[in-house]
């Protein structure tokens, strides 16, 4: 007998699967850039209705573009600027339903309408951020945030 899953339960199971896939994909690989590249590719393949998935790395007190999937992007973002810079400065996930309502939003891709950005830590210090953009408003919710934060925690084991 098959269990009828609600949309939310199905999403949770799908996220749990992709987190396991990330762990298996990165297991045994020590190259940080390769792991970030595979993590962004995996999320880009897994997530629907996204137009950019990637990393900005914390270097010399600013975020610098790292591995990503999507159109060319802004190369450098100052701490506290835009959604990514705010996530870095506050070291806290930023869940933005409408980027046009976010003070100081940096429009690297005019198609982006909503965004979620999670800090990535290494040895208790800011390493960078995972940035995911969508061409629709209200794309991300608490289920996405919770599971993407778990995805980042798994990634942090390999960077």
Automatic annotation (TrEMBL):
Domain GAF: 51-157
PROSITE patterns: UPF0067
Any one Gene Ontology molecular-function term assigned to this protein's record: L-methionine-(R)-S-oxide reductase activity
Entry-linked InterPro entries: FRMsr_CS, GAF, GAF-like_dom_sf, Phosphatase_reg/MetRdx
A GO CC term attached to the entry: cytosol
Sequence intervals crossing the membrane: none
PANTHER family: FREE METHIONINE-R-SULFOXIDE REDUCTASE, GAF/PUTATIVE CYTOSKELETAL PROTEIN
Entry similarity comment: Belongs to the free Met sulfoxide reductase family.
The protein's name: GAF domain-containing protein
């Amino acid at each position: 007998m098959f269990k009828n899953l609600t949309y939310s339960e199905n999403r949770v199971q799908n996220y749990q699967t992709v987190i396991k896939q990330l762990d298996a994909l990165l297991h045994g690989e020590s190259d940080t850039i390769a792991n970030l590249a595979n993590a962004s590719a995996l999320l880009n393949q897994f997530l629907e209705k996204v137009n950019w998935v990637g990393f900005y790395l914390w270097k010399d007190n600013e975020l610098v573009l790292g591995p990503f999937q999507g159109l060319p992007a802004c190369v450098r973002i100052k701490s506290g600027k835009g959604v990514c810079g705010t996530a870095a400065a506050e070291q806290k996930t930023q869940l933005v339903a409408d980027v046009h309502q976010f003070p100081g939003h940096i429009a690297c891709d005019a198609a982006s309408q909503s965004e979620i950005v999670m800090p990535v830590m290494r040895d208790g210090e800011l390493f960078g951020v995972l940035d995911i953009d969508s061409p629709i408003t209200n794309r991300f919710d608490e289920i996405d945030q919770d599971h993407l934060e778990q995805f980042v925690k798994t990634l942090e084991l390999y960077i």
